[in-house]
Amino acid sequence: MADNSKAEDTASDSVEAAKNASDKKEKLADQVMQNPQVLAALQERLDNTALTPSSYIETLPKAVKRRIDALKQLQVKCAHIEAKFYEEVHDLERKYAALYQPLFDKRREFINGEAEPTDAESEWHSENEEEEKLAGDLKNVVVIEEKAEAEETNLKGIPDFWFTIFRNVDMLSELVQEYDEPILKHLQDIKVKFSEPGQPMSFSLEFHFGPNDYFSNSVLTKTYKMKSEPDKTDPFSFEGPEIVDCEGCTIDWKKGKNVTVKTIKKKQKHKGRGTVRTITKQVPNDSFFNFFNPIKVSGDGESLDEDSEFTLAADFEIGHFFRERIVPRAVLYFTGEAIEDDDNFEEGEEGEEEFISILS
Fold this sequence. Notes:
It is found in: Nucleus. Its main location: nucleus. This protein has 360 residues and is α+β, with helices and mostly antiparallel strands. Helices cover 55% and strands 14% of the residues. The chain has helices at residues 2-33, 36-50, 53-59, 62-111, 119-122, 129-134, 136-153, 161-168, 170-173, 181-184, 306-326, 330-335, 337-359; strands at 187-194, 202-209, 219-227, 242-247, 261-269, 276-284. Strand 1 (187-194) and strand 2 form a beta hairpin.
């Protein structure tokens, strides 16, 4: 009996303590809510939370909403005009590509030893010309030795020009495997070709190879199909042409030379007899030359899985990089000067972001 009475007293004390604590909280809340500064701060927070653009639009009169809808109609028409602008830009790219091509053809001749530059063509004044003059004697000795060595080896052109670019550029070197390197040393030129007038917008990359022991193709191609029109379901997302699909080519590999596959051996057990046999099987292998066998975008609107979408996006980025940077500025990627410029540009962007962050 004593124990029961003690337990009842303890429970009663706990209930009383909880009630007192609740009363104190209510009194404190009443005092806080009577403070004008606290109320103003709460009201401002509620106003900022509630007043989103969409909620604000909902509060507008019907006549104003009607005018906003008219502005959206105008915006859609602007998007279609912008699409036409980019189509004309593509036509200009095609026109100027024809003007660049003779220079690129001469570049190819110098690289592959098909022609030698004249003294006027090879004259170049370095930014470090003064330093070079101070070291003139040493430089002359080196040049003489280099000339003697070149004469002895009958060196032509610029060896491993494009392969060196692949090695210098991180985006490309990550794709190249050790067994790809001997093949890329046969790469003689990369060209960009634009779609003809009246054809759907696209551009192609042509990789020209010299005779080699790996495949019989002289040219490997990759075509990127582009779209330059607003999406009917989301016209306001239009920001210019975008790559929507790409198409590779068939590589005619010579027997036993296909680096995009590897042969593995696998043991297989017969279900009935229990005997074991070894079978050989070809499976995909990492290689730069998978670049010419891209993931296909489904035409029926079926969405790709996350990994495929990432792979396709990376493919599109590489295609753009070849077209806009590598091919037009090849010699600067060979020497590394363009890579330094790219690094400085990225550092400048980071500095600008930090500056904006400080201001905000």
